[in-house]
Each structure stands twice: as C-alpha cells, then as structure tokens.
C-alpha cells in the first residue's frame, strides 16, 4: 500500500460499472468473480480509488479531515482485509492457470523453431530460382540465332501434315464409312472442304475434292434412311445433325421430318407391344401403371434425343391417352379409376387432365342419376305410406324418407369422391350438390298437389332437411287444400238446407275434417303442443249451444245495400284490430285457422241467397252446434276470434230472412 497501484486495488467506486483490479484479473483469466458487497455499517462514502486521476495523498488528507478516529481505524482494517483477499485470489488465479502458462510457453518456443526452419527453406528456394533464371537466360541467348529457322521448319511440317491429310482424305473417308464411323467421316470432310474449295484451280486438289464429294454424297443417301432401330439406338438426333452438315436447307428439313416420322412409328410400336401384353385380370391401376411405364421410358429417351433438334410428335402420346380413356371409361370402381388416372397423368398432364375431367364428370352424372332415382323412390314410398292418413305413418315416413335420401346421397358421393380432384374448376362438387338439392326441391314442390296427408309429410321432410321455407309453403298449401274442401262443403250445405230437428250432419263432418288435419300436422311435425280434444258431455254441449245469443231474424236484406254496408262497417270497426294470423305449422294454429275459414265460408255462402224462417232456424241450430264444439279444438287465446266468425255467419243469415217478423230470432 505504499504506492498508487496498491491503493487502487482497495475500496469501492462511486461508478458502479468501474472495474476493480480484482475483477480485471478474474476477467483476464476467464474466471467469473462476484463482487463482494460490504455491510451497510462498513459502507464508506463513494471513493474514486479506481480512477486514473486518483491521488493517494489528497485522498488520505480528505479522510483524516472528515472522518473520526474510530472510523479511520475501521477503514484501515477493511483495507487490510481486502488486500489479503486480493492477494489470495491472485495466488489462486496463478495456481489455476499454471498449466496454461506452461502450454503457452511451449507453443511460443515451437513457433520460434518452425520459423527458423522456414527461413532456411525460403533462402534455399531463393538461391534455386536464381540459378534457374540464369540457365534460362543462357539457353535463350544460345538459341536466339536459330529461332527463325526453327519457326520455318515448324510451319513447313504443319503444311506437310495438312497436305498429307488432304491426299489421304478419300481413303480415310472410305474407311470411316465402311466402318460405320459416319460422324468421323463428316468431320473430316468438313475440315477439308473449305481448303479444297479455295484451291480448286490445283488439279490434284480438285480431284481429291471430287472424290470426297462422291463419297459424301453416297454417305448422304445412306443417312437419309430412318428405321426404327435408329430410334431405339438413340441416334436420331445425331443422324439429323449429320444430314444438316452434309446437305442443304431442304435436306435438313427432310431429315427433321423423317426423324419425327421415325419417332412416331417407334413409339406407336412400343405402345402396341405393351397393349398386346396387357393382362385384363390385373387391376385397372396396375394395367395403366404398366402401360405408362413401358411407354414413358422410350418416350423420354426420344425426347432426350430430339430435344432442340426435332419437335416430338404428338401422335403416340395422343394414342396413349386414348387407350387409357378406353380402359377406364367402362369401369365403375371409381377408386381404381382415380388411381389409374393418377398413374397416367405424368405422361401428358394436359391431355390426361382433360380426359380425367370428362370421366369424372360422367361418373358424377351417373351418381346423380342414381341419386335422382333413389330420391324418386324415397318420395314414392313416403306418398304410399301416408295415403292412409295414419298418425304413426305420418310420424315415421318423413324420417324414413330423410334417412333414405341422406344415405343414398352419402353412398353415391363417397363412391364418386375419388374422382372429385379431377373435376374442372367450372364443374365443382359444391355446384353439383346445389343442383341436386334444387332438383329434389322441385320434385317435392311438384308433389305438393297430392292429397293432404302427403303434403304434410313432405313438409315434415323439408323441415328435417333444413328447408323451412319450403316446409312452410307446403303447410300453407295443405291449409289451402283442406280449406277449399271446407268452402265447397259450406257452399253445398247452404245451397240445399235440410230442415231437421237438430243440427245438420255437415257441421260435425267438417269439424272432424279440421280435427284430422290438425292431428295430421301434429303427427308429421311431432309438435309438442297438440290439439286437445276435450270430452264435453251432451249436456255441456247443449248448455253452451243455448248460451249463444243469436241475432234476431231482422230481414235486413230488404234494405238497401249501402245501408247494410255502413252498419257492418261501424259494427266491425271495434274488432278489426283483434285479428291475429294463425300459425298453420302447428295443430292448434291450423285448427283455429280452418275453423275461422269454415265460419267465413258459411257467411259468404249465406249471402248469396234468401232464407225462410225455417231455414234460418236450421242454420241457427247449425251455428249453435259449431259454437258448442269450438273449445275442443281452439285454445282460449283464439276462441273469441272463432266465436266471432260464427256470430258473423248467424248475423248474415238473420239478414237474409225474407218476411221476417219481430219475433223471428232467439235470444237465449
């Protein structure tokens, strides 16, 4: 601690990131050192011991001036402890890295020895290069006088070699042609043709040129023969190139056409051989795969030969695609067909994809026809099972038809599913599904004119299939069919009123018809709110019938039509806002709607004629009967509305009584 460096190793620093000597040693030797934190009691004010401008004398004087004696003693003891700790850490670092020091020393010594050996080698190489340079200069100087003579001899030798080649050219051409080395013959002729043409004035060279032309002309005739063996051996393109070299443009064009014809014959022959060996007992996929493999190998070889020289003929590939189409067209195993098409698509993706799209469309068309047939049968079965208007049949028939339709659709679509990827973009499965659904909807709509039980069953089927709109339309059509029957019965009853002691039978018949229609809807749609047929005793019916206050037979028909219309307008104005549309998709709503319609039909029918007092009395008994049975089929919230319709019927009847007296009606 006698110098600055010892002081720098002690104490802390007000800069938290400033390194201490201990940390510097640890980082140099690659040892992580956790800084030792003093206790809060021993903490001193921030000290710049590690700063480069630290002055020990100034620091000590400042401590003596500001700190008391006990704190100075504590600080001295702390500095001694830190000094001992730093010394022990330094010693540990030296011990731990001793082997590294030794290895580093040995490495440096080895490097020094290697550098010395390299310096000796470089010196030897430098001396050798100097000797080589001197010898080169000496040789160059000795040959300088004879260099021109050597160049002359070399040129003469080359000229003699060329003349020798020219004089031996006809013989060499004949030998090359006889040995079948056509490319060598053409190459030799090409090399000499320009020279012989330019020296045609020399008789000997002209004769040589004529002989060479004769040989090459004969060779050209041989080369123009293209047979299948040439395609099989892979020499088509080479033959075309040779003819292009030895002939003119016309010869080259004929050579390319002949090569294309040769390739076409060869590939068609390969395809015919493969078809002759076709085994019909194998699966369709295996047959197409074998045909593709036997065709693709030679086809690819021909493509490799003719690439950039002759355009590949399309005939063999088109023939292959036609054969594949014939093989898969009559198969009903669409999975095998799909595998076969995938095996063939690599031969010609464009053509095979077009064929695959056609086959896929035909397969889906066949499936759709079968689905239409199955759907027609399901609808026929539904109509046949619901003819009896049996509640159990109405409950089960729609479900059975829906199951049959879905099962047929799923089965046929799964059968044609393997071919879905081959459909064209304009012919998607979603479009076909929508088309099938539209066809089925039209078939259901067309059958909506059948008997009421079938109409309701079809409505239930539509609801099961999620077509609530068509289901509602069919139920409204059911209301219309039953309502038209009620209208006709009301017209017939009013047209021929039979006076009896009690109500006429048509009232109970029409009410039974309405009850049957309501039960039909509840059964088919499996409604949770059924028509409640409350058993009412005859006495209760009589009491309800007598409780009805019927209008007096006023003979109002004798008054003017304008006066009657004004009276009805003011009479019905108070109840016009109470009209409520009935939900005909439930039995209770249907009953209320049909009973209201029946009462309105009676009122409309009675307006068309005049009544005697006895006929009015009969209609009054009929109205009382209808009023008495209403609670069996109409809920309380609609009962008053239907009762009002019955009263309107009786009011219309009372107005149509001719010669009515003041005592004509009953007020009981």
How would you describe this structure to a colleague?
- The termini are far apart.
- The protein has 668 residues and is an all-alpha fold.
- It contains 26 helices and no strands.
- Helix 7 runs parallel beside helix 9.
- Helix content is 72%, strand content 0%.
Could you name the key traits of this structure?
disordered C terminus; 668 residues; mainly alpha; flat; disordered N terminus
Distance between the terminal alpha carbons, to the nearest Å?
135 Å
**Number of distinct helices:** 26
Helix content: over 70%
Return residue spans where pLDDT drops below 50 for at least 5 consecutive residues.
Answer: 1-19, 36-46, 557-579, 660-668
Layout of strands and helices, then pairs:
Elements: H1 4-8, H2 21-28, H3 56-66, H4 69-96, H5 98-143, H6 147-167, H7 169-178, H8 182-198, H9 203-223, H10 228-233, H11 236-246, H12 249-276, H13 284-306, H14 315-329, H15 334-344, H16 349-385, H17 391-416, H18 429-446, H19 452-464, H20 468-495, H21 505-525, H22 538-547, H23 561-573, H24 587-606, H25 613-629, H26 636-655
Helix pairs in contact: 2-4, 7-8, 7-9, 8-9, 8-11, 9-11, 11-12, 12-13, 12-14, 13-14, 13-15, 14-15, 14-16, 15-16, 16-17, 16-18, 16-19, 17-19, 17-21, 19-20, 19-21, 20-21, 20-24, 21-24, 22-25, 24-26, 25-26
């Amino acid at each position: 601690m006698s110098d600055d460096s010892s002081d720098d190793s002690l104490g802390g620093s007000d800069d938290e990131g400033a390194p201490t000597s201990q940390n510097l040693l640890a980082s140099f030797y690659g040892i992580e050192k956790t800084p030792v934190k003093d206790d809060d009691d021993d903490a001193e004010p921030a000290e710049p011991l590690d700063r480069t401008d630290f002055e020990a004398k100034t620091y000590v004087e400042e401590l003596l001036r500001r700190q008391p004696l006990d704190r100075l003693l504590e600080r001295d003891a702390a500095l001694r402890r830190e000094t001992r700790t730093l010394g022990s850490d330094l010693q540990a670092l030296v011990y731990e890295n001793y082997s590294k020091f030794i290895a580093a020393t040995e490495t440096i010594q080895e490097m020094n020895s290697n550098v010395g050996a390299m310096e000796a080698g470089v010196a030897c190489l430098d001396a050798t290069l100097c000797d080589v340079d001197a010898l080169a200069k000496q040789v160059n100087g000795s040959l300088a006088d004879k260099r021109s003579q050597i160049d002359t001899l070399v040129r003469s030798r080359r000229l003699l070699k060329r003349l020798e080649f020219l004089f031996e050219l006809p013989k060499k051409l004949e030998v090359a042609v006889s040995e079948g080395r056509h490319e060598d013959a053409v190459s030799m002729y090409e090399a000499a043709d320009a020279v012989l043409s330019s020296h045609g004035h020399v008789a000997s060279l002209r004769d040589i040129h004529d002989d060479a032309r004769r040989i090459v002309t004969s060779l050209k005739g041989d080369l123009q023969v293209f047979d299948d063996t040439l395609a099989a051996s892979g020499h088509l393109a080479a033959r075309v190139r040779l003819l292009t070299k030895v002939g003119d443009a016309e010869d080259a064009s004929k050579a390319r056409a002949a090569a294309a014809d040769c390739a076409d014959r060869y590939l068609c022959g390969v395809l015919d051989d493969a078809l002759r060996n076709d085994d019909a007992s194998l699966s369709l996929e295996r047959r197409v795969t074998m045909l593709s493999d036997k065709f693709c190998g030679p086809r690819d070889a021909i493509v490799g030969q003719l690439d950039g020289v002759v355009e590949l003929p399309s005939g063999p590939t088109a023939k292959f695609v036609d054969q594949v189409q014939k093989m898969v067209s009559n198969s009903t195993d669409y999975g095998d067909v799909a595998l076969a098409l995938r095996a063939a698509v690599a031969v010609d993706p464009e053509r095979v994809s077009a064929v695959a799209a056609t086959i896929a469309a035909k397969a889906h068309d066949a499936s759709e026809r079968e689905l239409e047939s199955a759907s027609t049968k399901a609808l026929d079965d539904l109509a046949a099972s619901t003819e009896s208007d049996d509640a159990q049949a109405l409950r089960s028939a729609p479900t059975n038809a829906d199951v049959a339709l879905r099962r047929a659709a799923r089965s046929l679509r799964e059968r044609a599913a393997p071919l879905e990827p081959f459909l064209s973009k304009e012919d998607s499965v979603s479009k076909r599904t929508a088309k099938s659904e539209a066809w089925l909807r039209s078939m259901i709509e067309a059958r909506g004119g059948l008997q009421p039980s079938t109409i309701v069953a079809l409505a239930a089927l539509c609801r099961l299939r999620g077509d609530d709109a068509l289901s509602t339309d069919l139920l409204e059509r059911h209301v219309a069919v039953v309502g038209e029957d009620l209208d006709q019965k009301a017209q017939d009853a009013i047209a021929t009123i039979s006076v009896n002691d009690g109500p006429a039978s048509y009232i109970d018949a029409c009410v039974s018809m309405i009850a049957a229609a309501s039960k039909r809807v509840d059964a088919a749609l499996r409604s949770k709110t059924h028509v409640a047929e409350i058993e009412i005793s005859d006495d209760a019916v009589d009491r309800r019938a007598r409780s009805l206050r019927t209008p007096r037979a006023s003979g109002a028909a004798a008054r003017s039509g304008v006066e009657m219309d004004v009276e009805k307008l003011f009479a019905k104005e108070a109840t016009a806002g109470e009209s409520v549309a009935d939900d005909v998709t439930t039995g209770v709503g249907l009953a209320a709607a049909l009973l209201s319609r029946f009462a309105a039909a009676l009122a409309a029918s009675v307006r068309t004629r005049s009544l005697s007092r006895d006929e009015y009395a009969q209609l009054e008994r009929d109205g009382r009967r209808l009023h008495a049975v209403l609670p069996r089929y109409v809920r309380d919230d609609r009962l008053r509305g239907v009762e009002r319709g019955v009263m309107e019927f009786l009011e219309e009847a009372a107005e149509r009584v001719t010669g009515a007296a003041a005592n004509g009606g009953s007020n009981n």
